[in-house]
Amino acid sequence: MSGPTGLVVEGLRKGFGGRTVVDGVSFTLPPGGSLGIVGESGCGKTTTARMLVGLERADGGTVHLDGVDRSMRPRGRAGRLERARGIQLVFQDPYVSLDPRIPVGACIEEVRRLHFPLDRADRRHRVAELLDQVGLGEREAAELPRRLSGGQRQRVAIARALAAEPKVLILDEAVAALDVSIQAQILDLLAGIRRASGVAFLFVSHDLAVVRHLTEEVAVLRGGRVVETGPTVRVLTEPQHPYTRLLLDSVPRRGWDPGRIAAGRRAPA
Amino acid sequence: MSAVLTPAVRRPLLRRLRPLGNGPLFTVAVLVLGVLVLVAALAPLIAPYDPEALDLRSSLVGSSADHLLGTDQSGRDVLSRLLYGARTGLLGPLLVVGLSTAGGLLLGTVAGWRGGWADAVLSRLMDLVFSVPGLLVAIMFVAVAGPGLTAPVIAMAVAYTPYVGRLVHGLARQEKARPYLESYRVQGWSGWTICVRHLLPNIAPTVLAQSAINFGYALMDLAALSFLGFGVQPPAADWGAMINDGESALQQGATMPALAPSVCIVLAVVAFGIVGEGIADRLARRER
Amino acid sequence: MTPALLEIDGLSVRLPAARAARPILDGVSLSVAAGETVGLVGESGSGKSVACRSVLGLLPQGAGAEGQVRVGGRDVLTLDRTALRELRSRKVAMVFQDPRAAVDPLHRIGDFLTEGLRAAGVPADRATARAAELLDAVGIEDPRAAMRRRPHEFSGGMLQRVVIAAALAGEPDLLIADEPTTALDVTTQAEVIAVLTRLQAERGTGLLFVTHDLELAAAVCDRIHVMYAGRIVETRATDELFARPRHPYTAGLLACTPRIDPGAPPPRPVPGRPLSLAEAPAGCAFAARCAFAEPRCSAETPALRPHGDGLAACLRADEGILA
User: Fold this and answer.
1) For C283, how many CA atoms within 13 A lie in the half-sphere containing its CB?
2) Which residues of chain C make contact with A252, given a CB cutoff of 8 A?
3) pLDDT category, A130, cuts 50, 70, 90?
4) pLDDT tens for residues B84-129?
5) pLDDT band at residue B218, thresholds of 50, 70 and 90?
6) Contacts of residue B4 in chain C, CB cutoff 8 Å?
7) Average pLDDT of span A172-190
């Protein structure tokens, strides 16, 4: 092993049909750390996440995880599996991220079977453990996804991602589709999982308030570029970049004056 | 949290089928197809006469207690020929639909999932086959291989493959972009496994609906080939060939030998159409 | 006090027996006066969308309703088709969540804006001038050019401005906004809210603002109704609601909303999941998730009663449990 540990992304680029969506994004996520990638729609945050897990191919730049280069497409089964054990992803909408035909317990068991074929004896035990870790029991395990609520499905999706025992878990707007009271449950759950397992989080979100409570570092993206990066507390209390300030001012709260923000935005343009 | 959870109980088959109900028309169509299959299976037991037994003395007898639907020009019992005709009538389309569905699934999935050059090549190939009229290809096949069931079935199977292939191609592309299939890619499964285990079962109902509709069309096309003399050869009982035979009887005032198989073809085609549309409707409703 | 533009009075809605007779709303009452902004806040299944749509006479197909929904003193639920059309074109306008679904994608923006005016008998040139004025008012530059463009040429935020302009075209007394910014980015949300509240203040329009976001409601509304499982559980002036909530659900929502302010505590989850009225057991629908529930909470359905300066539907609202 060589180079620094953790996830190191350098100069990641991606374009679609001549339009650059991700334009030289770089960041570092230490082992067990938690990094927020914040921005509005079209800023390239989701495309970045998809490149990290291999759902899109980068046009340029490098991705290293614990010194191992992930920029090339993996060759063969072993490469594919090793790559999958590096980074896992939880999608935004739990209503479409689970195979509707497969009971959720079996859905997690599949992952264990793929990645740890030799632990047949305690596979069931591990599946139960994973489900328990996300607050689900045997009864839910036997159900098809459609019989579970949105929050329960997102718990399944998290357990499934953890089943591969990844070093990095990417959460792509993973609480955005949930009711507020459920959102808090999932955030709480995620914080607990990070403490217990030491998995690193890459938290992709548009919601600064959510990022504030779950990350140590944050990178603000706009138009495919990182405009500001630093410790979350610092960035959210003393933003340096005008765009970060605009984002912060735009978060609704009591005594909020949207008129001023709108006026402030038009002035520099 | 417990309100949505009820134990998954295996429902009896009939109750599982009931939500398929798209009104009485759908039920009637299913019944018609059921009777058809039953008749085809039991033809030797229920047919009153040998369908190929000639009896020139009782040519073109009207309907009577002996011959419910009368006889044709060669004195063969029309009812018996009709019942036996259901066998080739269903076997041919079954083979066509089976082969074209298999071919379409393979080509469509590979093109839709792989994308890139594989997509370009396979899609152009399917367009090419699509643009050639199936009946014409079938007639060419027969010219080379001789008449019978085999040549038309192979030709029609080739001609129908793009219908399924294009559908599957679209479905595969659409499903590939859905997070549930993407999640399998992120987990490290091979494309082949994802397609066989997760993609195909999820698109199967839609493909099934299309296949049911294709079944009716294939039945009609094969009957047309038999009618033209390229398909199943006399004296074997076949609806299309029976209409051809019955044509000369029509000139002598006997309608039944041509009318009876025509009615059977129309009934079967319409019934398959309704069932196919019914399944498609239901899927559309479930999507919502 | 000015007479209320909108009074919803004891509205109960139930789906028909043919479709498993499900109750959706139970005894919902609220009012909006001219120039007032009233929030209707709730999670999924709370019935907030059904309640606000009833103001336009839009109930789920075949649903049975009890109670009254009065706009300008007339009960919407008893209006015939002509009167409903009159109501929708003159008195009440609605802004939906997804602007793309609210605009015909094939028509030019100008046609979309003027068709209502033309139908009301305004001559073409006057209607065009009025539409341009409205687009200018919602902050769209070069309105004449914008009117020649089609919906796909607009961003979501810009299109929602167009929808707001169209809603204001008939100079309605009352505007219903059902999650108008949920589909938009935060910065765009701020702009659209700025436009909406400015125009509402200028014109003295009453606004019923429906959202799942308590913080957003707090920023926009004078008074907030919190809904849970088809019922209103708390009604209070915004500052009061935030400072001294009386219903444990309101308190729970406040505590579980992640806050951006420095030093704000991490969100505290409420156990369980939000229910709809059909799933709710007897008694208080929130009892199963409530940290303060007593045995009587699952036996007796609490009525919405005055507590402090507002209303709360909790048997223990006077016991100071949330202090």
Assistant:
1) 15
2) 189-190, 193, 213, 215-216, 218-220
3) very high
4) 989 888 999 999 999 999 999 999 999 999 989 999 999 999 999 8
5) very high
6) 279
7) 92
Instruction: Compute CA distances B269 → B102, B216, B262, B273, whole Å.
Output: 22, 4, 11, 6
Minimum distance, in Å, between the CA of residue C273 and any CA atom of chain B: 6
Class of domain B70-287: mainly alpha
Q: Which residue in B227, B101, B226 sits closest to B158, CA to CA?
A: B101
Q: In this structure, are A192 and A262 located in the same domain?
A: no
Kindly provide the ipTM of the predicted complex, given to two decimals.
Answer: 0.90
Report CB contact under 8 Å: B179, A96.
yes
Residue A3 is predicted with a pLDDT of 64
**Contact A63/A70 with Cβ under 8 angstroms?**
yes
pLDDT digits (tens, 9 = 90+) for B35-86: 999 998 988 888 888 888 777 777 777 777 777 788 887 788 888 888 998 9
> Nearest to residue C251, comparing CAs of C160, C197, C312?
C312
Shared domain check, A27 and A120 = yes
pLDDT of residue A8: 96
The Cα–Cα gap between A170 and A214 comes to 13
Quick check: C219 and A258 CB within 8 A? yes
For helices B256-287 and B78-114, angle between their N-to-C axes, nearest 10 degrees:
30
Question: What total of structural domains would you count in chain A?
Answer: 2
Q: Say how many Å lie between the first and final Cα of chain B, rounded.
A: 24
Instruction: For residue A119, tell me if it sits in a domain.
Output: yes
pLDDT above 70: residue A146: yes
Same domain for A194 and A107, yes or no, is: yes
Helices (H) and strands (E) in chain A, counts: 11, 10
> Do residue C272 and residue B3 have CB atoms under 8 angstroms apart?
no
Domains of chain B by residue range: 70-287
Give chain C's mean pLDDT: 90
Q: Angle at Cα C316 formed by Cα C314 and Cα C322, nearest 5°?
A: 95
Q: Do A157 and B183 touch (CB under 8 A)?
A: yes
Q: A231 and A244 in one domain?
A: no
Over residues A128-147, mean pLDDT: 92
Domains identified in chain C and CATH numbers:
4-106+150-260+267-312 (3.40.50.300)
CATH of the domain at A95: 3.40.50.300
Positions of chain C with pLDDT lower than 50, given as ranges: 1
Is the pLDDT assigned to residue B288 strictly greater than 80? no
Nearest-Å Rg of the Cα atoms of chain B is 23
CB-CB under 8 Å, B1 with C272: yes
**Looking at the structure, do residues A145 and A256 belong to the same domain, yes or no?**
no
Q: What are phi and psi of B84, to 5 degrees?
A: -65, -35
Q: Which of A162-171, B26-35, B100-109 has the lowest mean pLDDT?
A: B26-35
Same domain? For A232 and A262 the reply is no
CA distance A85 to C126: 65
Cα C239 from chain centroid (whole Å): 19
Taking the C-alpha atoms of B222, B224, B226 and B230 in order, what is their torsion angle to the nearest 10 degrees?
-90
- At residue B11, the pLDDT reads 39
pLDDT in tens, C180-229: 998 888 888 988 898 888 888 888 999 999 999 999 999 999 999 999 99
Residue range(s) defining the domain that contains residue A251: 239-269
Q: With beta carbons under 8 A apart, name residues in chain B contacting C274.
A: none
Give CA angle at B177 (B173, B180), nearest 5°: 120
Neighbors of chain C with 3 or more C-beta pairs under 8 Å:
A, B
Of A87, A104, A214, A93, nearest in space to A159 by CA: A104
Do residues A164 and A152 share a domain?
yes
Instruction: Examine residue A2 and state whether it is found in any structural domain, yes or no.
Output: no
- Asked if residue A143 and residue A129 are part of one domain, the reply reads yes
pLDDT band at B4 (very low <50, low <70, confident <90, very high): very low
